[in-house]
Design a protein that fits this description.
203 residues, Ferritin, 71% helix, elongated, Ferritin-like, signal, DUF305 domain-containing protein
């Protein structure tokens, strides 16, 4: 963190006095900035009010901004499987219910982080999210039912989960935030287990 240059020469008594006053004011202002950045570097909970300015914190912000819509689409896919018209198998319906119950609260958690950090809750438009489905994919899925729905849903959700795992592993390599690390690891572990189940259903 760069710090304001402090006056090092004083030619006359009045200049010295003015310099000391300015120095005192600068120190007061700098104290709050130092405190804020300390809160960012040591952020271990959602209560930090620091602005995300370090490279690691920027990675945390990007992770949350991108994972929220990623999770939202997974919940949307889960909702399709739970609709009667999909005629999904009990196994698919159970997975869909599990996904919705896990990812809904995670969306709320990440939204809270971004609000606390003073960051936008919208994903950057110039970043792609691995595993995301296009509108055409979602429309096609919504038009299927029975075994055709099951196969397409499972295939799409495997790819979607693999994308989420990639994003989570990326932030695990950069974050120093204990809560971000915990959530990211939970995504890796939980979604990998679900991928294993889905691949077994597809076999």
């Amino acid at each position: 963190m760069s710090r304001p240059n402090r006056p090092i020469r004083r030619s006359v008594a009045t200049a010295a006095a003015a310099g000391l006053v300015a120095l005192g004011l600068s120190a007061c202002g700098n104290s709050g900035a130092d405190s804020g950045m300390s809160g960012m570097s040591g952020m271990s909970g959602m209560g930090s009010s620091a602005s995300p300015t370090s490279s690691a914190a920027s990675g945390d912000v990007m992770f949350a901004q991108m994972m929220i819509p990623h999770h939202q689409q997974a919940v949307e896919m889960a909702d399709l499987a739970l609709q009667d018209k999909a005629q999904a198998s009990p196994e698919v319906r159970d997975l869909a219910d599990q996904i919705a119950k896990a990812q809904g609260p995670e969306i709320a958690t990440m939204t809270s982080w971004l609000t606390t950090w003073g960051a936008s809750t919208s994903a950057p438009m110039d970043h792609s999210m691995p595993g995301m489905m296009g509108e055409g994919d979602m429309t096609r899925l919504a038009g299927l039912s029975g075994s055709e729905f099951d196969k397409e849903w499972l295939t799409m959700m495997v790819a979607h989960h693999e994308g989420a795992i990639t994003m989570a592993q990326d932030v695990l390599g950069t974050t120093s935030n204990a809560e971000v690390r915990t959530l990211a690891q939970s995504i890796v572990d939980g979604q990998q287990a679900e991928i294993t189940t889905m691949k077994q259903l597809l076999a």
